[in-house]
Each structure stands twice: as C-alpha cells, then as structure tokens.
Write a structure and sequence with these properties.
Elements: E1 2-3, H1 4-8, E2 16-19, E3 27-28, E4 30-33, E5 47-51, H2 59-71, E6 76-79, H3 89-98, E7 102-104, H4 111-136, H5 141-152, E8 156-160, E9 165-167, H6 174-183, E10 189-191, E11 194-199, E12 210-215, H7 220-244, H8 248-256, H9 262-268, E13 276-283, H10 288-298, E14 303-307, E15 310-316, H11 321-332, E16 341-345, H12 354-368, E17 375-379, H13 385-391, H14 395-416, H15 420-429, H16 434-441, H17 445-459, H18 466-482
Parallel strand pairs: 4-5, 5-6, 6-7, 16-17
Antiparallel strand pairs: 1-3, 2-7, 8-9, 8-12, 10-11, 11-12, 13-15, 13-16, 14-15
C-alpha cells in the first residue's frame, strides 16, 4: 500500500505538505493529471491528482475544483503554480475545508517524473501482493520462484553456498557462480549474464546464505523483493530443520555415552533400521556456528548438533557421503575467512556400532589435522586400522612408546648424523624385502644388511620376528602422528 506519507518521504520528489497532516495515511491507487475545472467524472477514488492550476482564476474556481476531488474521495492533490512563488491561498483554504491533503510540487519538477516514480512504486506493490499471495498460500519455494521468474521476466534459480540447486532446475556453471558470490566485494553482482542476490536470514553471514540467481540484469528493487520472500521460505525450512534436530542432541548424548535408551532415541529420529555414518567437524578457531552451518549445508538431510567445540552429524549411510562433504567444502572455501574446517567421517555402521563410529569419526578428523588445505575431510574407510588405533592414543603416550622402542636408534642418529630410523622405515614398508628396500634406498644389499644389523644390535631385537616388526612399525607411525 502506497501512502501519502510515503510520497513525502521520497526525497527525490521534494514534495511539501501544505495541509492535511492528519490524513497522510490515505492510500494512493493511481496518478491522474488534469486541468479540468471539475474532473469528478474521471475519478474513482484513491487518486493522487496532479494539476498545474490552469483552471484557476479565483477563489470560486478553487472551491469547485476541490469540492469535486473531495466528492470523488481522492487520496490528495499535488499542485504547482509556475507563475507564482506559492500556491494560491484560496486553494489551501478550500483543501482545508474539504479535507483534501495538498502537496506542493517544486516548479522545476515535472509531473512526468512524479507519475513515473509513483507508477513504479504502485507496480512494485502490485507485484509484491501477487508474490506474497503465493507465500501466504503455502505453495512452497518452487511455486514462489516460478511466480518470481514471471514477474521479473527472466529465469531464476536458488542455490545453496555448497552449489546445491535448492529450486529452479539445473544451472550450468552454478559452482563458479557460488564462488563468485562468496568472494564478491559487493552484492548484488552481475556476472556473465546473471545477477547474484543474497538470500539471508537477519544477522546471517554470507556463508550461511542462499543465492538468488536471476538471468540478465533485473530491476534491483524487484530482485531484492523476490530475495526477501525467498528468505521467508528459507526461514520456514530452517525452522522445520530445527524441529527435526530436536532429536539430534539427546541422540548424540546416547551415542557418546552408550546410554540404554539409544534404541528409543533412534526410533524417535526414524533411524532405528538404517545404516548410519557419524560425522565430526571442528574449526581451528572453535567456530561451532560455522561448523554447524557447513554440515547442515553439506548434509541437508542429516541430524546436526554441537557437543562442546565439536559439531556432529548423524546421516544415513551412503558411499557418496565423503565425496559430497568434500565437494561442498571446496565450494564454500572462499567464504571461510580465516577459519580452517576439519571433518572426520565414520565408516557405515548399524545402530550397535554408533559409539565406535563416533570415535572413528573423531580419530579420522584428528588425523586430518596433519594434512594441508583450508578444508580437510577424512573418511574412516580411507585410513588403515593402525592409524585409527594410534590416533586414539594420547600424544604423550605415543611419544613415550616411540621413545621406549626406538630410543637407542634415535640417539645414535642424533650423535652420528645417520638415518638408521629412515632405513628401518623403508625396510618395514617394503615388507622386509632386502632387494626392494635396497633399491628404494639406492644402496647395495650388503650395505642395507649392515644398517639393519646395527639397528638390531642397538635395540637388542631380531627383525626376523613378526611381533618385533609390528611393534617397531607402530612406533614409527606414532612418531609421524606426533611430529
């Protein structure tokens, strides 16, 4: 609804109120310009009447003209007197008597400018009402986007910041568009024939936004209006997710503490018969809000909740889950700022294996801390069993065990500048094959036998024994984890 007080607030029109301050909440339905002494037959109510007062020759003319406006129940009169500094006093008096708000138009402002501005506002309000009707009817985001595309006269899409199409069908190059959105200095932004408009919750950051993509360069106000209504639909979905996630915190507590009510918690979440994965995520700066947003966007159907500085997700098992999370994080990287996101994902398990799956996800995530990159995703099935087992051992204990098993060789290397530890690692990595290890080290087999014999002498062990090889291999791995 366009009110008279809204027109007065349009600084570019520079309209000034002469009378009718108590009637500024009148709604304007259209603009009508006239120089007829009595235009009542052309008025239907709600008009903003524009007049240059060519009909005015005296007080009686003002009385006739304004009385006709009042009878037609117009919204108000906007008048200009190009040959005088002020509007005729008798016109002001007539408007006061008949309760017709009177706005003075600057002599250097054309009525065409007023007409275009008000008409554009009325068109926008009409568009807003049509789109709002779609929202109010609960037709959903696809219907709203279809209506918005019709109003803007251009195809539209809604994307998540992982590059997922939320609504609007397939969009080539959507991942690059999202990256442009996350890196843009200013929004909206037009790039390669499309305009990117943020769809944000109040107070939300860009990483947790959706992206409204409109083909071409639409009118800014129209695109922003559609984005605001899409945000309402987004809020509805977020509220629905919050309701679903009410089961996540008690379920995670039951998983982490092996509670007796785990089965009932799984049933409440509808997961009692599903194979599941547990996902564990942290950021280097303890941003649980960021880690939560990342997992919710990457796994839109998972249950997500935080426990301390760690965010967990419980998702139905799928071989594609690690790749989905990895791909989503790569797309979101430009929006992470200074944060680094580490994610561990368990192998698929049944309900009875959830406690172990949570530990596996945490161990996998900790192993990822040693890898490079702004984001790192490590899945349990990608890691050897001994690595997962060692990741669960406190670092102090790993260091102690490594020292106990390899101490004499470590001291010898430090004193003589040798690398017997490296020789031992290659020898064990090649399964104790003298030929393969010698080739890897680029030494003669006899040289290798001497070095390995020196290791056995220093440690007092026989590397022909399988258990000894296992212990030393784990000690070497423990050193890599602690380095």
């Amino acid at each position: 609804m366009l009110l008279l007080r809204t027109l007065l607030g349009m600084t570019e029109l520079r309209l000034s109120l002469q009378t009718g301050a108590d009637q500024l909440d009148r709604a304007v339905t259209r603009v009508y310009g006239t120089e007829l002494p009595d235009p009542s037959r052309y008025l239907s109510g709600g008009e903003l009447v524009l007049s240059g007062l060519l009909w005015h020759h005296g007080p009686q003319d003002s009385e006739t003209f304004v009385r006709s406006l009042a009878a037609a129940n117009v919204a108000g009169l906007a008048a200009s007197e190009p040959h005088h500094d002020h509007l005729p006093p008798d016109l002001v008096t007539a408007c006061e008597r008949h309760h017709v708000p009177l706005l003075e138009v600057p002599v250097d402002l054309s009525f065409a400018t007023i007409t275009e501005r008000v008409s554009a506002e009325l068109v926008g309000l009409s568009r807003h009402r049509r789109l709002l009707t779609v929202v109010a009817e609960g037709a959903g985001l696809p219907a709203l986007l279809l209506a918005g595309s019709h109003e803007l006269g251009a195809p539209c899409w809604v994307l998540s910041t992982t590059g997922r199409v939320v609504a609007g069908g397939e969009l080539p190059g959507r991942v690059n568009l999202v990256k442009e959105f996350l890196q843009a200095d200013r929004l909206p932004k037009t790039i390669r024939g499309t305009t990117l408009v943020p769809v944000s919750e109040r107070g939300g950051n860009r990483l947790t936004s959706w992206v409204l993509v409109v083909a071409g360069e639409p009118q800014h106000e129209a695109a922003a209006e559609l984005a605001s209504l899409v945000a309402l639909e987004r809020l509805r979905q977020a509220q629905g997710r919050q309701i679903e996630n009410r089961t996540a915190a008690p379920l995670l507590t039951a998983v982490l503490h092996a509670s007796a009510d785990l089965d009932s918690r799984l049933a409440a979440a509808g997961l009692e018969h599903a194979r599941l994965r547990v996902v564990s995520a942290v950021t280097n700066d303890q941003r649980t809000d960021l880690a939560t947003a990342v997992l919710e966007e990457a796994l839109p159907r998972a249950l997500v909740t935080a426990a301390g500085d760690t965010v967990y997700a419980i998702a139905k098992a799928d071989d594609s889950v690690p790749d989905e999370v990895r791909t989503a994080l790569k797309v979101m990287e430009p929006g992470l700022g200074s944060s680094r996101v580490l994610v561990g994902i368990s192998s698929p398990v049944t309900a009875r294996g959830l406690r172990g799956a949570a530990e596996e996800a945490a161990h996998a995530r900790r192993l990822g801390e040693r890898r490079g990159g702004r984001t790192c995703v490590v899945a349990g099935e990608e890691i050897a069993l001994h690595q997962l087992l060692l990741a669960g051992v406190p670092e102090e204990l790993r260091t102690s065990l490594r020292r106990r098993l390899l101490g004499p060789v470590l001291d010898y290397d430090a004193e003589h500048g040798s690398d017997l530890v490296g020789t031992l690692r290659v020898f064990l990595d090649r399964g104790g094959s003298w030929t393969a290890a010698a080739q890897k080290l680029h030494v003669h087999v006899n040289t290798l036998r001497y070095r390995v014999g020196r290791v056995e002498e220093l440690l007092g062990v026989d590397l022909a024994e399988f258990e000894v090889r296992v212990d030393l291999f784990l000690a070497l791995q423990a050193g890599q984890l602690s380095a």
